[in-house]
Design the sequence.
């Protein structure tokens, strides 16, 4: 096992599970068994709104990391513990944004298949990414991170 003070031992690039699940959903709906979810114009409007919210949250988080001179790269060590901006509300705002984009993608694809992949995507993100990032932050920032964890929820 790698030294958690050097960098997180992240197992998978975080956007990958979401993207693969949406792609698999599209293929299953198109080639295997259609599971339509069509609310008419609501799908497009709400779908694009959710995608937009996810992208805004992602941009806000990137800007916050940039202001604190630390990395967004899940394979590099954090140099600062960011606790403001979107981190006042979630310890993982990028992953919350990814879920908004995923839900929007489901609406835009007009299929229920993405719901079947939610548990798998959640497990991969939670245990393949977040667990390792949390170990890294705990090893590097100690009590400061413990206080942050006690104050701010993982998701929302």
Sequence:
């Amino acid at each position: 096992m790698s030294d958690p003070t050097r960098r997180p031992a992240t197992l998978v690039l975080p956007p990958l599970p979401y993207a693969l699940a949406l792609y698999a959903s599209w293929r299953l709906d198109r080639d295997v068994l259609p599971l339509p979810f069509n609310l008419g114009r609501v799908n497009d409007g709400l779908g694009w709104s959710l995608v937009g919210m996810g992208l805004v949250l992602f941009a806000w988080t990137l800007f916050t990391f940039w202001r604190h001179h630390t990395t967004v790269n899940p394979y590099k060590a954090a140099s600062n513990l960011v606790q403001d901006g979107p981190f006042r509300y979630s310890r993982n705002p990028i992953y919350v944004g990814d879920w908004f984009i995923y839900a929007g993608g489901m609406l835009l694809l007009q299929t229920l298949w993405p719901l079947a992949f939610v548990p798998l995507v959640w497990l991969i993100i939670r245990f393949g990414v977040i667990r390792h990032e949390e170990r890294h932050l705990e090893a590097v920032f100690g009590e400061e991170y413990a206080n942050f964890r006690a104050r701010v929820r993982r998701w929302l």
